[in-house]
Design goal:
The complex is a heterodimer. By secondary structure, chain A is α/β, with parallel strands linked by helices. In chain A, 31% of the residues lie in helices and 27% in strands. Chain A is elongated and about 70 Å long.
């Protein structure tokens, strides 16, 4: 494993009404896409904003290349917040140009426009962009300083599926340049596609940490059987199976498919609507916390 | 550091210049005010005689003349300043009632002629000192007030609401994630607004001055220096209000709390001479009072740098104090 570019040590953030982050530690190796996953209110945004140097922690620290966050970090980090408004009346090019002027080094405005496929929109008022275009502009702004570490806080929330896929392609092209990406998301598909390593947060604590495939291997057998809840009689809950319940379905994880199917048939469970699929991060979260990720 | 400041300054200027409705309003409001006020108040003065008394304060019991009805007596301790008022017909007569009694009257002033008769009826032995000079029109006196008022609103609301809007929209938070620091950001806002205010003030000064036929008695560069220092003081005052808060209602209330007393007490519309001492003391806390006193001294009386230096020092010191406080208490984000 390469030297960590970011280290989070014993981080705690307490607000008057709640504890958002309850003592977490992890390190981020350089050149990977690192995911912070969790449902709304899990502490993802608080954690990433402390890592970005925007919020002060109640205790604990974040170190960038072994040092406390400071001037070097601000020069070398690119940030895309969950929600950012830009100055009124400025065109796409002028918005990028403004932020480029705030850094000593970086890409040219034209390079950034090209990188984020914004050339045709360069002269448009930033307020007249669609949701996907707006996110591409904010990503372009996060890239103006050619950052070594890029923070993306729920970058595709609210985008339509096509815009989301376009954004993922952009992030993959940035990832290919071996930049470190810190991503928060509650879209498991996004995390599975982009992240090399993840931390799953719940109630401000880490409930799982590691590469997604390894975590799935560790927590799940090879397949999941999915049944509608109404097809699963109450008596069947007593069966010697690894059963996970969600609001509308029953999931059974198993490494012996035939034996499990025989048990279900013997218990007269209808298999007409049975689906068999491999486990994913959504299942992992359900397994670890007992709640659905997007609850 | 400079390239960051310039980047923010350039973007803010672009934003303002493209906001056509605000730009037009900024230019039109003072023009309309001057023309309107000139029209309303440009006629004859109120039918009230104003007599300056060379004394530190007025003691009505000291002399029968000071008990005359329909005459407003104003204490004028400085003889040279008092004589200037007679020349401009800002007072109808100036009197020194100590022995031997003397008075100064502007031979071009019709009201001076009448109030002179009143004085001679009460003090026949008073010796006459004639003074000449054209009457100062109300619109000439009002002109610096309107320029100053426009400057005040532009400084306080222009900067205050812009910073508040940036904070509420999250734009400030985004800037905070860059190497930009509070001093660079605030300096860019101050310079952007200062440039705009100077431009508008110069346009208004030249344009309206030509319309009303105004001639500056003093040095125009000194006026420009005064405009720069005065605007800096008021912009910095606006920044202190906008430095921390995120509520439009609160910031609007605080800005109104500042602007209304300045509107009424800084001498935009009428002179505070003759008003109670505590009112004058309160008025001199406001930067606008110093801007207007100094501007009128230069524009109407031809005052030089030495005469308005105390005003410039007050404005410079308050600009630094407000800016330091604003930078110290500045918040990039809403907690």
């Amino acid at each position: 494993m390469s030297t960590p570019i970011l280290e989070v040590r014993d981080l705690i953030k307490v607000y008057p009404a709640a504890t958002a982050v309850a003592g977490i530690s992890f390190s981020v190796p350089a050149g990977i896409c690192f995911g912070l996953l969790g449902p709304n209110g899990a502490g993802k945004t608080t954690t990433i904003e402390i890592m970005e140097g925007i919020l002060p922690p109640s205790s604990g620290e974040v170190r960038y290349r072994g040092e406390a966050l400071g001037g070097r970090f601000r020069e070398e980090a690119g940030i895309l917040f969950q929600k950012t408004a830009l100055q009124d009346f400025l065109t796409v090019r002028q918005c990028i140009s403004l932020f480029r002027g705030l850094y000593d080094h970086g890409l040219t405005v034209d390079e950034v426009l090209r990188l984020c496929a914004l050339e045709k929109l360069a002269g448009r008022d930033n307020r007249k962009l669609s949701g996907g275009q707006q996110q591409r502009l904010l990503l372009a702004i996060a890239l103006v300083n050619d950052p070594d570490v890029l923070f993306l806080d729920e970058p595709t929330t609210g985008l339509d599926p096509q815009a989301r896929r376009n954004f993922w392609e952009l992030v993959q092209s940035i990832k290919a340049q071996r930049k470190t990406i810190i991503l928060t998301t509650h879209y498991m598909e996004e995390a599975e596609l982009l992240c090399d390593e993840i931390v799953i947060l719940d109630h401000g604590r880490i409930v799982a940490q590691g590469p997604p495939r390894r975590l799935l291997r560790e927590h799940f057998a090879q397949v999941l059987l999915e049944l509608p809840r109404q097809d699963f009689p109450a008596a069947a809950r007593a069966l010697p199976l690894n059963i996970l319940e969600s609001s509308d379905r029953i999931e059974i994880s198993t490494d012996d498919l035939e034996a499990t199917l025989r048990t279900l048939l013997a218990a007269q469970v209808s298999l007409s609507h049975l689906r068999i699929r491999p486990a994913n991060l959504e299942d992992l979260f359900l397994e670890l916390t007992g709640t659905e990720l997007r609850s | 550091m400079m390239h960051r400041l310039l980047a923010v300054l350039h973007a803010r200027n672009l934003e303002f210049l493209r906001d056509r409705s605000t730009l037009i309003f900024t230019l039109l409001l003072p023009v309309m005010l001057v023309i309107g006020m000139g029209f309303v108040f440009g006629g004859p003065e109120r039918p009230l005689f104003k007599v300056g008394v060379l004394a530190p304060h007025i003691d009505r019991a000291a002399h029968p003349f000071l008990r005359e009805r329909y005459v407003e007596f104003i204490a004028l301790p400085e003889e040279q300043a008092a004589l200037q008022k007679v020349r401009h017909q800002q007072v109808d007569l100036l009197v020194n009632l100590r022995d031997p009694p003397r008075y100064w009257v502007n031979t071009d002033s019709p009201k001076g002629y009448i109030v002179e008769k009143l004085l001679l009826a009460a003090v026949p032995a008073a010796s006459r000192q004639p003074v000449n000079g054209p009457a100062l029109r109300y619109v000439d006196w009002l002109f610096p007030g309107i320029l100053g008022m426009n400057m005040m609103f532009s400084c306080l609301f222009g900067v205050g609401y812009v910073v508040l809007r940036y904070r509420k929209s999250g734009f400030l938070k985004r800037l905070y994630a860059t190497p930009l620091n509070a001093f660079e950001f605030l300096s860019a806002q101050v310079l952007s607004r200062l440039g705009l205010i100077l431009f508008v003030t110069v346009v208004l000064y030249a344009g309206i001055g030509a319309i009303i036929g105004f001639h500056n008695a003093g040095n125009t560069l000194l006026l420009l220096l005064l405009a720069v220092v005065g605007a800096l003081s008021m912009i910095a005052l606006g920044l202190t209000i906008a430095a921390r808060f995120a509520s439009e209602e609160l910031v609007g209330g605080l800005l109104n709390l500042l602007t209304w007393p300045m509107m009424l007490l800084s001498g935009i519309w009428f002179s505070l001479e003759g008003s109670p001492r505590w009112v004058q003391w309160v008025a001199h806390v406001f930067p606008l009072t110093h801007v207007l006193d100094a501007a009128r001294a230069v524009m109407l009386d031809g005052a030089g740098l030495a005469q308005i230096a105390p005003h410039l020092l007050f404005l410079g010191a308050t600009a630094l104090a407000f800016l330091a406080f604003g930078a110290w208490s500045f918040r990039w984000r809403i907690d």
